[in-house]
Design goal:
With 302 residues, the chain is of the alpha/beta class. It contains 11 helices and 16 strands. The protein has 2 domains: 219 residues, P-loop containing nucleotide triphosphate hydrolases (Rossmann fold, 3-Layer(aba) Sandwich); 71 residues, Alpha-Beta Plaits. Strand 2 and strand 3 form a beta hairpin.
């Protein structure tokens, strides 16, 4: 049995002469929230459409829970729910009616409707016309529609696009709940790097159709060399003391000085050294690059 909910093996896809996906080998572990990161036009939506068999993949390149998608199309699709671009919602129907309609289409018991509305936090807006919903509510209804058949795997394409901060938090919390409490595997594409950092357990970075990085969120952070940020009252004296100590000074601004990180013990020694020399240390701590800078580092090498 495959340990991956999604696996692509050297996947290539062309629109005419244009290469959109190039030698893509994704590995999305079961139970993960996999952040699929890349700038607009990187090939994220095309990849998701291939995974949903909306675009046909070459034989033996796309596997869903270990089964090749073209030869096991119905079985594969029955395990997937998706929200690609805009949710397919009937604006003249209420949220409840949209879900009831989907149940009728899929032959699902209508008893699931109340459960889905509760799960995505729309119970109080159940009878409100979906056309009157906020963007965040529409996205949550879209996710409820994708979850109604109880799929094991959820593919979400830019689910927080255009949302206000509250809407973004709602979708983020919903994804975490779906993965942790309901044991769903989620592939979520985004160009909002800080957003993925808050939710993902695993990350794939794509640019110009090519996968540049794939691993856990911690492995991504490990690519970043930490730095030590020190705030002190006497910056010139601090520079002199740190130079004698053998620290590599990276930059200083105002009352803040940045040095290269060696280890935790060294940070403690530096703090003691500065205090013993009569300096006031306002703060000292280890900082890592955020995903945005990591992303720029990785993509600039492509």
């Amino acid at each position: 049995m495959s340990q991956f909910a999604i696996e692509t093996v050297g996947l290539n896809y062309h629109f005419g002469s244009q290469v959109v996906v190039k030698d893509l080998s994704l590995q999305v572990p079961k139970g993960s929230i996999y952040g699929f990161l890349g700038p607009n036009g990187a090939g994220k939506t095309t990849t998701i459409k291939i995974l949903l068999n909306l675009l046909k993949s070459p034989a033996d390149t796309v596997f869903i829970f270990g089964k090749e998608i073209n030869s096991h199309r119905i079985a594969s699709l029955s395990k997937m729910g998706s929200l690609v671009e805009q949710p397919a919602i009937y604006g003249h129907l209420s949220g409840k009616e949209n879900l009831t309609n989907r149940c009728l289409l899929l032959g699902i018991n209508k008893g699931k409707v109340a459960e889905m509305l509760s799960l995505v936090g729309l119970s109080e807006a159940a009878n409100k016309k979906a056309g009157k919903y906020s963007l965040g509510m529409k996205q949550r209804l879209g996710i409820a529609l994708s979850l109604i058949s109880d799929p094991e795997l959820l593919l979400l394409d830019e689910p927080t696009n255009g949302l206000d901060p509250n809407g973004i938090i709602e979708i983020r919390n919903l994804m975490i709940e779906l993965a942790t409490k309901h044991h769903k595997t989620i592939l979520v594409s985004s160009h909002l790097l800080a957003e993925i950092e808050r939710t993902a357990t695993h990350v794939g970075i794509i640019n110009k159709g090519q996968l540049l990085f794939q691993g856990t969120i911690n492995e991504l952070h490990d690519l970043s060399k930490p730095i030590v940020k020190i705030e002190t009252d006497k910056i010139e004296a601090a520079q002199h003391i740190l130079s004698i100590h053998g620290a590599e000074i990276l930059k200083e601004t105002g009352h803040t000085i940045y040095i290269s990180y060696k280890n935790k013990a060294d940070v403690g020694q530096i703090n003691t050294l500065l205090v013993q020399n009569g300096l006031t240390v306002y703060s000292i701590g280890i900082e890592r690059k955020d995903l945005e800078h990591l992303f720029l580092d990785i993509t600039s090498k492509n």
